[in-house]
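HOLO CASE FILE
Compound: zinc ion
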Amino acid sequence: MPTPAKPNGRRGANAKAPEEPAGPQPCSACRATGNVFANRAGEQVSVACPWCQGSGSWSPGFDAQDAGVFPGA
Ligand SMILES: [Zn+2]
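Model generated. Tokens follow.
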């Protein structure tokens, strides 16, 4: 029978959580859907989210404007 793993060690005594999450998080720009609506010639068209590039998850540190995905910005 398997031996249950015991949590080893204690967590740090720091009361404050880090302000920025380390890993990817759900993209707030597209609500993790991977698509956003853009206005093209007066029509709402669905395009791949430039922030997460359609993946639905956004990595802190990635700047879509810096990456040039917003040509008009
Ligand atoms: Zn997105």
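CASE NOTES: The helical segments are 64-67. The first helix runs from residue 64 to 67.
CLOSED: yes
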